[in-house]
Amino acid sequence: MADENTEIQTATPAEGQEVREGRGRGRGRDRGERGGRGRRDDRRGNRNEEEGGEELIEKLVHINRVSKTVKGGKRFGFAALVVVGDGKGRVGFGHSKAREVPEAITKATASAKKKMIRVPLKEGRTLHHDGRGHFGAGKVNVRTAPAGTGIIAGGPMRAVFESLGVADVVTKSVGTSNPYNMIRATFDALTNQTSPKSVAQRRGKKVADLLGRGGASEVEAEAAAEAIVE
């Protein structure tokens, strides 16, 4: 019996010691978790600042309810089409599907940010020249316009030019009114846009030489070349 009691007495402090050590380790983990949270908060803050540094214009173009037939019936979801731009010559579009509308919009916005393209703008307000775009059954015509014209476009095309930062443009959509095809046709026309600077570099000439071929004098051509802002 004495031996058993001594064993019990010696075992009890050991258990208590293990419990105290466990608590100590728990406090250490709590401190580590608190420190980890602080670091994650810092990383979040930096990421928000980076995202906040580049202000993007997000426009929801179209929401469509879609369904998938499965063994048990139909599963309904939503498809979102979003256009994103910085208002300074960069624009992109994305589309995605999800079970809920907010999730579909978030996924489409993330896809649009990854596929942004740069379009040269004349004086930062309009296109350098007229153009045409085609995709599927959608055809669009885009034309440069003088100051004060505004954005003469409807539906999905207006969202693209507002996000792009164009203030004066005249457009016409021919064919389908499907927003997906209209958006792709518009981007086809925008990707074909060129600026006098890029053409001059490609041909190994000066911008004034290209502008002077329209009948303008050398002085006027040089002044126009210096005034070009992409």
TrEMBL record:
Annotated spans, Disordered: 1-52
Please tell me whether the keyword Ribosomal protein is annotated for this protein: yes
Q: Where is the S5 DRBM domain?
A: 56-119
Q: Where is the composition biased (Basic and acidic residues)?
A: 17-52
In terms of domain of life, where is this protein from? Bacteria
User: Pfam families given for it?
Assistant: Ribosomal_S5, Ribosomal_S5_C
Instruction: Report the GO terms under cellular component.
Output: ribosome
Q: Which UniProt keywords apply?
A: Ribonucleoprotein, Ribosomal protein, RNA-binding, rRNA-binding
Quaternary state and interactors: Part of the 30S ribosomal subunit. Contacts proteins S4 and S8.
Q: Which NCBIfam families match?
A: rpsE_bact
Q: Spell out the family assignment given in the record's similarity comment.
A: Belongs to the universal ribosomal protein uS5 family.
Record text about domains: The N-terminal domain interacts with the head of the 30S subunit; the C-terminal domain interacts with the body and contacts protein S4. The interaction surface between S4 and S5 is involved in control of translational fidelity.
Q: What does this protein do?
A: Located at the back of the 30S subunit body where it stabilizes the conformation of the head with respect to the body.
Indicate what this protein is called per its UniProt record.
Small ribosomal subunit protein uS5
Species for this entry = Novosphingobium mangrovi
